[in-house]
Batch of 2 targets.
Target 1
Amino acid sequence: KQEVTQIPAALSVPEGENLVLNCSFTDSAIYNLQWFRQDPGKGLTSLLLIQSSQREQTSGRLNASLDKSSGRSTLYIAASQPGDSATYLCAPLMDSNYQLIWGAGTKLIIKP
Amino acid sequence: NAGVTQTPKFQVLKTGQSMTLQCAQDMNHNSMYWYRQDPGMGLRLIYYSASEGTTDKGEVPNGYNVSRLNKREFSLRLESAAPSQTSVYFCASSGGVLAKNIQYFGAGTRLSVL
């Protein structure tokens, strides 16, 4: 059974820092992996989707990497801003049934 | 730009009561999903519908039923609510085949069962 772990569970950094959020998964038979952002009291917003054949995907200040064989993905946020404060979730999509399996998330606070 | 709309936003039920959570999307997506989110845990899939007229169980279907009323609407029903069903419920939709594409989420329904 796929298990997804996100470390750290919470992170507080001053504005302007570059930071890395980690996601690990136990079953490498995935179709793709998605990173989402969740703001308090709101739904989830997709940030990046990496296909299993890709190593990286970039959108603005965000860069996500995927090492499928080792079961790891990272989300890199450059020059963090207070508006980046949110919970970040990763979710690999299983090859077997096309279901997303979710991590519990990393709660990020960017201090002005 | 409505996207995925869920109603109601909040609900309090007594044990044993029933209710239906509504979800509608205006993006002409084929696939729709119901998740629950509990504190400290990842989202868990309750039911999904790959296309109009089909529904399938996810990871935690017990105590729930769903209806894919048409391509736009996918409802989740609790027949006899239990305190263990206290959670935040999210509806999502995606184009293409199942979740191969990006999923778009509603704002959630916060349900408390007393």
Note: The interface with chain A takes residues 4, 40-45, 48, 58-59, 90, 92, 97-108 of chain B (CB under 8 Å).
Target 2
Amino acid sequence: EVQLVESGGGLVQPGGSLRLSCAASGFTFSSYEMNWVRQAPGKGLEWVSYISSSGSTIYYADSVKGRFTISRDNAKNSLYLQMNSLRAEDTAVYYCARDGRHRYFDYWGQGTLVTVSS
Amino acid sequence: SYVLTQPPSVSVAPGKTARITCGGNNIGSKSVHWYQQKPGQAPVLVIYYDSDRPSGIPERFSGSNSGNTATLTISRVEAGDEADYYCQVWDSSSDHAVFGGGTQLTVL
């Protein structure tokens, strides 16, 4: 059974940093591309970032480019999102999502809440 | 950047057919994917590549895509189908995934 479990969310002040993790199991993690998708309270889904299976190709949404860094450790079956210079508008539930071979998201974690507030 | 437009809400009586649209410039040339999200839960993929269903998704869910509109059709709607539905494409010109704004399906 495919499982994605996010962790690392919490309350952080504006300008602060946070690192999210996503632990994957039930599939060959190193063979799959991965993504982060977020959802602000009461709002719709917003794609954040993509990373290829090897980590060699990375894309970011314009809203986070230059502030967030996606990475992965295939030996640890883990995906990460380093978030710096956080803003109030980054407040959201962050989901890790497996890429279903052609840029759609076939499995999602349960999400981790990030709150940016003073 | 590429924009996907969905109606904010759709209402349907039980047993009837619900159609949720997703508009975009020449969206028929892209692959469209659909997600269902119930309150407090993570999204679930219900349609990929315009009309394919993942295992475990009922045949009542179907999709189509042509011209400037993609459509998610839910036949014989049940109370359990009440949820938010999102369409999504990959915009290869910007290498970004794009979601529609979401449609809240209400079962009357």
Note: Chain B is about 0% helix and 45% strand.
